[in-house]
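=== RUN LOG ===
request id: a7f3
mode: sequence -> structure
chains: 1
length: 336
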Amino acid sequence: MTFNSQYRPILDLLVCPECKVGLRAQEDKLICSNCNSEFTGSNGIYNMIGGQLNEHDLEQQRVADETCAGYHKFLTTRPLYGLIRDKYVFPYWLKDSFDGKSILDIGSGTGWSTCVIAARASMLVNLDISLERLRFAKARLEAQNVIYVQGDMKKTPFPDKKFDIILSYGSLHHLDNPETAIAEIGRVMNKNGVFLAIEPNIKFTWVEFWNEILHLPKPLEKRITNLYKVMQKYTKKQLEKEQPYLKNIKSKEKLHEGIRDIDWYKNMFAKFSFKLEYQPVGLEMVPPRLLMSKNIILVESLLKCSQWCINRFKKGKNAYFNIMRATRDADGATTK
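=== RESULT ===
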């Protein structure tokens, strides 16, 4: 990819991820005007990873590259994920107008969330650490207003206050330090901008749910807990059959070590002068294998029932997911 005058919009969009200083074009490279770091692009994807990724991020990158197609197929063949996106996430997100806005999707992956967003935005930037997932998304979307950038969401290659809306569809919990990414969100989002996300919650099992609701006697609770452990072993074997793309991945638990509860997010966004609102979605009231069924009527009914239970029993903090919306406090303060 040769950079010339037609790439002026790219030079206006990108900065050095380390220095946050503008870039100059030199044939097939973008060069930092301060530290002289060099960045390249290929087939419409800009490689803007600055410095050396740490061990955790390198593993995330490797897994994302190796599981790209398999993971996307799994998402599209399990109604749970499509229902949560289409029935809960998009209606919540689209309360904010996306029309004509500059939008950044951090941890954009295979384009699972941006397939609907692209048509509304004036500019959509997909940022991901995985080159393979960006290639996959680019082949699927084929939209003229979408820019693909390989980069680290903890060191984003964008100027201050560049975006109207920033999205994160389940990406923050893949970080070893989500706080750093939240600081970057505050830096690159403009004064009146909005951050929209969905993140998984700390696991709350169906055994815990029914024990809290029914106050089960200890002997019965113990029996059900033992049953749960047996079912978990069976579920693990079944998932290995259904997700063969994960069979060589040894670090499944570490891939999600950044999962936090909603109170952590509230406190962390407040630290960076944001006000956070959220909507809990889904509750494990039955063995999760039922929610992973391919029967869309069953899964949709279980989701509706779980939403009723969240409201009836005030279990919002125990939900599967939290859909979040963060805006700056009234004073418009930037990161501290």
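=== NOTES ===
The CA atoms of residues 74 and 290 lie 16 Å apart.
Residues 53-202+254-328 form a domain with the Rossmann fold fold (CATH 3.40.50.150).
=== END ===
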